[in-house]
Amino acid sequence: MVEPMVFVDLDGVRLEVCEGDLTQATTVAVANAANNHLWMGAGVAGALKRAGGPEIEEEAMAQGPVAVGSAVITSAGRLPYRAIVHGAVMGQDLRTTPELIARTTRACLEAAEGQGLESLALPAFGTGVGGVALADAARAMIASAVEFAAGGPRVLRSIVFVLLGFDAFHVFATELQALTAPGSLG
């Protein structure tokens, strides 16, 4: 079960940080931390593939390879979502940076917006095999979401960061509060 724990509303877009299993999110779509060839190995991608079926990977790989920092959309297989947004946060070296995480987050949000998706759940990009510290990933992802929310009226009205474990939740929640505190948005 995934429950909203910390949230803020910015210009009509709700940003939430939750602790739980991404495959249990209550959004209309979820994001996958992908590589640029879009094959689904371990971590979040593996969990989505196990729960949703191999057709998700087949659909994704048919669209690749793509540029690192971009995103593609597939069906969700057996999962109860309208779509999965695959953010190519790393190349074949399976490494990434906070800058690539920020660019990929923005690409995922723009792809969801372009498909008319009202809500999207995202995991912590780049913190597994990508090797980026949770705090750096949180700062990059939340800053991208805040910038996206400030961009005017949006179809995508709910951006949910679903983190596995209390430590990851705490880091993202702290960053959300810091980046949206009075005086930090000006």
Oligomeric state of shown chains: single chain
Structural class: alpha/beta
Strand order of the largest sheet: 1-2-7-6-3-5-4
Strand content: 15-25%
Order of helices and strands: EEEHHEEHEHEH
List the helices and strands and how they pair.
Elements: E1 3-10, E2 13-19, E3 29-35, H1 43-52, H2 55-61, E4 71-74, E5 83-90, H3 98-114, E6 119-122, H4 134-149, E7 158-163, H5 166-179
Parallel strand pairs: 2-7, 3-5, 3-6, 6-7
Antiparallel strand pairs: 1-2, 4-5
Structural features:
seven-stranded mixed β-sheet, 5 helices, globular
Provide a concise account of the structure shown.
The protein is an alpha/beta fold. Helices cover 34% and strands 24% of the residues.
